[in-house]
Write a structure and sequence with these properties.
The protein is built from 12 helices and 45 strands. It has 759 residues and is of the alpha+beta class. Among the domains are: 36-68 and 509-758, Alpha/Beta hydrolase fold, catalytic domain (Rossmann fold); 307-403.
Length: 759
């Protein structure tokens, strides 16, 4: 349908249609009350189109991925815990190296030395549990953000035979090896199949899969996006049972997005008439997929449904086996996501018992299932019931064994335990802005195995004798090292010195600050200043924030992005983590429960007012920017009473929580039926008429996460009241707005907007 925008006072009439390519119009420079609203693009006279193309867009490439990305090794530890596997730079071979000596042990896979099937290269690989086989894939095609289909092949290391995973299904997804490495379960056309590798056969585990109706084994859009899971398939330790979750999404409402030809790999069939892409997307309060748990007997080929106790299992974000075939561990959540229960089920008898329950006055943190770990004698779960997120160890009967994590700080990752009973984990310590790897020994002593000030992430080899350590800080580029479990460096794999030298002349000044927030709360923040910062000058400020629940932007870690470029153009950037963000315990994080947008706005306004008091800041020239949740908070803060902002840029924003997906929104807000006032008060659309500064909105037309309707409904509200704004639309771009220089254009347009409004 055509969208028309008119400005009768200026005698202008501009129109465009979604069916045509974007056209960029030059417009007169005007003040806010006569700002131009353009569908497709808007460019002020102060930033000529040619200048943007030749200068800002081109220069920003160095500050955007991939040019802004540091190098990092890609390796997989072998099952023996003494060696690791790396892929060659040309994606043609897999090489095994000894951890201690760095000697090359052998080439496990090489596309030039395979039998029966040959490939020019491969995109990725999966190593079987006993390292006797490898799955490689090519020609992957994305489904959603994390999921994809691909052409999978199975390689037998000893014989060097390479065969397609399936001859009946040209594309597959989420392949899973059986524990003995002799079978692979995979999904094709919404059904699960079991390939028996010894015999070259495959068996249909399910047959009722159908697009838009039934999904077996793989997950629906909401689970993938909000539970960070693409597969719910589990093999029993004895290889005789395959368990899986079935999704019935037949009653989930359909969402449609237009498809245009575009200019990046254009699709000619949509040149004159757009197409439609449809998928199942439950908004807050809508019908979700119904999930059920099933077991498949490999020998008898019979399937059973495993019934969970009444009232449980509304969501099943994780399934996994314990050490015994009778221990299928099932993590469940109620719809309100404030009750978390883990069941131990016997798939043969279907007898199921509860072994862990946690209830919250707010929500269960995603770490509870994302960091769930099942060991040989116990399981470890993340709990936030004690004021901080802590890792707790339980027996498989449900008996509590120990609390693993360091007191008075949030635990952020659990890595495992060694044969001596030492546990390894990461925590937001010694300050919430840092990440440190710790060891807890059997005597209860905590030892930091990463002593550097900053952020350390780790991955441990089986047995936890060795780890790959990734360290960085605001002043230090990422360094990747192979280390012993006690932190002693064996070898540096990547120090990124070349990258550091390349960007040294582009780095701004960056430091941490403490910022007074609303209601007497002290907030953590950072400030980015130009390299040639002059304390006697007055600078315009851009407040950059995300603000979403559990997130953290203010971290002592390396970053090099648009903020550095904007600083080189004479801006100061300030970022503050207000209430609702993570790393500071349960109370700080859950303050926003059922009231999204309230405390976040109070704190972001307080942060801006603090910035205005700095002697080198022009308090009349403070802007705010955010993407996604940050885009939402941008709109909320720019429309607040007595807002201090002189300009706002909102990218891909949620504008009303009724528009967003059920799992995420209800976790923090419950349903609209349960929390009508919270949804009303937290609606950016509801306060749009109070917008107090010039606004630029940007979004992608193919955003399956935060739909374009969010921005369009917001702008429609402004339009109906005669309030004007700028808009820039990215055809065929998703929530990330990447590819074909799109990310550079986002920041170039933002820069031109802030330069016009704040300088």
């Amino acid at each position: 349908m055509p969208l028309w925008v008119a400005n009768a006072m200026l005698g202008l009439a501009l129109a465009t249609r979604f069916l045509t390519a974007l056209k960029i119009f030059k417009i007169m420079k005007i003040q806010y009350l006569a700002a131009a609203f353009l569908i497709g693009a808007s460019v002020s006279a102060s930033a000529a189109i040619g200048t943007m193309r030749s200068n800002a867009v081109g220069e920003l490439a160095a500050y955007c991925a991939p040019q802004s990305s540091t190098n990092h090794p890609s390796l997989v530890f072998m099952p023996d815990g003494q060696s690791y596997l790396v892929r060659s730079d040309d994606h043609r071979s897999l090489i095994v190296k000894d951890i201690a000596s760095d000697k090359e042990i052998n080439t496990l896979f090489d596309v030039t030395h395979t039998r029966e099937t040959t490939l020019p290269d491969f995109e990725g690989f999966i190593l079987s549990p006993d390292a006797s086989k490898i799955i490689v894939w090519r020609n992957s095609e994305a489904i959603y953000r994390r999921s994809s289909t691909a052409e999978y092949y199975v390689y037998e290391v000893r014989s060097r035979i390479l065969k397609p995973l399936s001859t009946e299904h040209p594309r597959q997804s989420v392949p899973v090896f059986s524990p003995d490495s002799r079978m692979v379960a995979f999904v094709a056309d919404n059904n699960i199949y079991a390939a028996k590798l010894d015999y070259g056969t495959e068996v249909a585990v399910t047959t009722d899969g159908a697009p838009g109706k039934i999904i077996n084994g793989a997950t629906d859009w909401a689970y993938e996006e909000e539970f960070s899971v693409t597969s719910l398939i589990a093999w029993a330790p004895d290889n005789l049972t395959l368990c899986y979750v079935k999704f019935d999404e037949s009653q989930v409402p359909i969402y449609t997005l237009p498809i245009y030809a575009g200019t990046c790999n254009p699709d000619e069939k949509y040149e004159l008439y757009p197409g439609i892409w449809s998928y199942k997307y439950p908004v807050a309060g809508a019908t979700n997929s119904t999930v059920t748990l099933h077991s498949y007997d490999v020998e008898t080929r019979k399937t059973k449904q495993i019934e969970l106790p009444s009232g449980s299992g509304y969501y099943i974000p994780r399934i996994a086996y314990g050490p015994q075939p009778s221990q299928l561990m099932v993590a469940t959540l109620n719809r309100d996501q404030n009750r978390y229960e883990i069941f131990c089920s016997n798939p043969k008898s279907t007898v199921t018992k509860s072994v862990y329950v946690e209830e919250s006055k707010a929500w269960i943190e995603p770490e509870a299932y994302e960091q769930l770990h099942f060991g040989s004698n116990s399981f470890v779960v993340a709990s936030s019931s004690d004021g901080y997120t802590r890792f707790k160890e339980f027996s498989y009967t449900g008996s509590p064994l120990k609390t693993i994590t360091k007191p008075d700080c949030d635990a952020t990752a659990y890595y495992g335990s060694d044969e001596l009973g030492n546990h390894y984990f990461q925590a937001a310590a010694p300050t919430p802005m840092e990440r440190t790897v710790y060891r807890l020994d059997r005597k209860g002593t905590y030892t930091a195995v990463s002593a550097e000030e900053g952020t350390t992430n780790a991955s441990f080899a089986p047995g936890c004798r060795y780890m790959l350590k990734n360290y960085s800080s605001i002043k230090n580029v990422p360094v990747y090292s192979l280390c012993k479990a006690d932190g002693k460096v064996i070898r540096v794999l990547e120090d990124n010195k070349a990258f550091e030298s390349k960007v040294a002349a582009l780095l701004p000044q960056k430091e941490f600050i403490k910022v007074p927030g609303g209601d007497g709360v002290e907030m953590n923040g950072y400030i980015v200043k130009p390299r040639d910062f002059n304390p006697s000058k007055k600078y315009p400020v851009i407040m950059s924030q995300y603000s979403g629940p559990g997130s953290q932007q203010v971290l002592n870690r390396w970053s090099f992005d648009w903020e550095a470029y904007f600083a080189s153009k004479g801006f100061i950037i300030i970022c503050v983590d207000g209430r609702g963000t993570g790393g500071r315990g349960t109370a700080y994080r859950t303050a926003v429960y059922k009231n999204l947008g309230h405390y976040e706005t109070i704190d972001q306004i307080a942060a801006a007012r603090y910035a205005a008091t700095l002697p080198y800041v022009d308090g009349s020239k403070i802007g705010i920017y955010g993407w996604s949740f940050g885009g939402y908070e941008t709109l909320m803060a720019a429309s607040a009473d007595n807002s201090p902002y002189a300009a706002a840029v909102s990218v891909a924003p949620v504008t009303d929580w009724r528009f967003y997906d059920s799992i995420y929104t209800e976790r923090y807000m419950l349903t609209p039926q349960q929390n009508e006032r919270g949804y009303s008060d937290g609606s950016a659309i509801g306060r749009a008429l109070h917008l107090a500064c010039p606004l630029l909105i940007m979004y992608g037309t193919a955003d399956d996460n935060v739909h374009p309707a969010n921005s369009l409904q917001y702008v429609s509200t402004l339009q109906s009241a005669g309030i004007l704004c700028d808009m820039f639309v990215f055809p065929q771009k998703n929530h990330s707005i990447n590819g074909c220089n799109a990310r550079q254009v986002v920041y170039a347009r933002m820069l031109s907007f802030f330069e016009e409004k704040l300088k």
